[in-house]
Amino acid sequence: MKNYLLDSLFINMLRLRAICPFSWRVFQFRTCSCKPLISQMITCTDEEQVFDLIEKNKAILSEKQVECAFNILWQFQKQKTSFLKNVDCIRDHPQFLTLHNLATSQMEFMNDDTLVNVLYITQQCATEAHDLVAALVTEAWRRLERFDINVLSKFSSCLANQNLYFSPLMGKIADIVHRNLETIEDLRSLSVLMVSISSLISQRFQEQLVNKTEHLFDTIDSSQVNVARRIVQFLRNIKYSYYPLLERCNKVFLSNMNHLDLDSISKILSLYHSLQFHSFEFVETAKKRLAEMIPLFDHPDGFVKLFVALGPIAGPEEKKQLKSTLLLMSEELTRQQALAVMGAMEEMESRNSHLIKKYLKISVIPSEISILVYALSILPSSHLDEVGISRIEAILPQCDLNDLNGFATSVLRWIHYDRKCLDNTTGKQLKLLQKLDHFGLQRLRKCNNLNLLWEELKSLKGDWFAESLLEETAGTLHRLMDEINYKNVAEIASFISRTNYFSTLLLDRIASVVVQQSEKIHPYVILDIILPFSIFNYDPPQNDEFFRICIQYLNSYLSGLDPLMLVFLGYSLATLGYFPEDLLKAIFNIKFLAKMDSQLEFLCSSLNMKVQFRLMELNRAVCLECPEYQIPWFHDRFCQQQYNKDIGSMNGAQQQIYKMLAEVLGGTNCVKASVLTPYYHRIDFECILDKRKKALPYGSHNITLGTLPETHWESHTQITGSRLPPGAERIALEFLDSRAFCRNIPHLKGKSAMKKRQLEILGYRVIQIPHFQWNSMALSTKEARMDYLRERIFGKSKS
């Protein structure tokens, strides 16, 4: 029986050899010399040694040895700097063709991991090996359902390298991931798959992947930077700023900052910018790490990447170093490198006329031309000639709102500063502006998707958008209002805040989404959500529930929020008359204030001052409106320093009002101009009426019209001077210019409303004089204005 089995086996093997002689050779070889040859390959020190082994053993190489040869060649390439040059050397070597042919003939005998690994390395080393790549992809497609998660993820990456994001094959991979999501436990492989399939999946599947990622996040150790980066990239791809995951990934990046290279930091900063995710700690540590790299890059490839990453966040000294190095290598830059530099220089508010003019004439992509035209417009004595105008006009139908806005901002700047208003070119610029209006309005009217609209709106700024497109944009947002959800609610709220456009419909929708989907709202976005309500001084119909949810979420996350954000949150809530005790206790303590001071050192001067002013205003609001909290006032010195810098002077309307008040009240000694109240509110005018409504004179304080009186400093926590006589009242008169009101309707904004509230607490009767009333036709004569003042002060029109 035993002999029979051996004979039978031998006969079957002979049959196999007759049917497939190549397979027989492979089978025969594996048993005796596979490992020794692989060992020889592993000990090779360069590509030539590997190719020598291939040439000597090409008749007997197995699929495992073919894979080993690919692996070792790829490892050699990764260790070298001039990457493209070395890849050419491998691809053009005659023995690489031998390896190519062996892989083609043996692929059906390769196991799944070998097959996909050979495909991956072939893509990296031999971009022109289209037939081998196609054959490997086809074979992989045939086996797709049996791939394990690791092989599947690597195969999806191979397809992504070929830009096959929307292919049926990628769709099949997405389906496999969807069907097996519950059993996947490897976050490294899943993160690769998530990035690869992100363009194809539904919103529901996106949410499932986000939830799965959160569940698996703790299974990776803190050194897994690539996994964290892919998670952030996935969120960027699906346009979802999901803060719980972003914060966890950010901690991974911070803990590995000393090991991050330029490429990694550059990618992370770019992803954060796209997601509008701001991490003060990451930016500061990245800035320090990148600054250390400046001396290391003297070649355009590396330097441009460093310039783009570091430039917008660099300090003055680093910017100086970057610019001087750029000047030396500007002639060596390729077109794409120059455009990347120009984009960074726009963020840095810097410029280089040579680079701009060199590349403007050859660019054909709207976003590129927009960057260059904008950069050219901020150069001194620059001029957009007819060639440039024609180039812009030719691409207008392809432009999105961001491109159109960039062109319009540039053209408006030229028109504003061009003294030759009758010049033929200026006339053409005006016609170009009309065309920009037309294409902008047309694009808004055709828009039927809120998320796509937001991608174009999120970076818009400048006068052109506000004057030409804001009304139409608001109409489009109203039309698409039902698409506002927990994912985009903070972004839409932030946009409304920037535009100064008051819409109760949009604000009510925002409040409704927060109330209905509160469990999906992250505390990190509460500031963006609250801000428009604070700015516009608006309480939505679900007022109590809306603010209760916002404050509750904040209280549960106080320790995780950035100090600067907490200050802005406290101020925004105070503007609306909300003073959460837990939030205020978190802000007004020594440890918090010390941490905030350490951050202020790294901020630009304008943001630094804004934070300090907001903290002062919050301190003032709490002292005046919530004295029961017993939070001390500690901003005397700060306020004195600021107001000493900004004595200022009266504008035209204020001068008119001052002169008329003197007549109405009985003389200049009955009215004070630019009065500093307790806690440093500055009011335009002050007067005191006795119980018979007669103005009481002050001491001698005559001033020259148009100038403001000198301030004498003392403790400003109570009104100085003698107490008022019984029945007398102190009146504050404020002229409110356009900044105190919303752009589209005369609705008083939150800051002015809060000031009025606090002045009343200080004992003032507050009279606000809106600019649209003072400058109206009804008050076009002096007598009408005098009557207006009398009625507001005395309650009657005639003295």
UniProtKB/TrEMBL annotation:
Domain of life the protein comes from: Eukaryota
Biological process annotations from GO: mitochondrial RNA processing; regulation of mitochondrial mRNA stability
Protein name: FAST kinase domain-containing protein 1, mitochondrial-like isoform X2
Main location: mitochondrion
Keywords (A to Z) from UniProt: Mitochondrion
Gene Ontology annotations for the cellular component aspect, listed alphabetically: mitochondrial matrix; ribonucleoprotein granule
Any Pfam family: FAST_2
Organism per entry: Callorhinus ursinus
Gene name as annotated: LOC112810035
Entry keyword Ion transport: no
Residue ranges occupied by any RAP domain in the UniProt entry: 731-791
GO MF terms held by the record: RNA binding
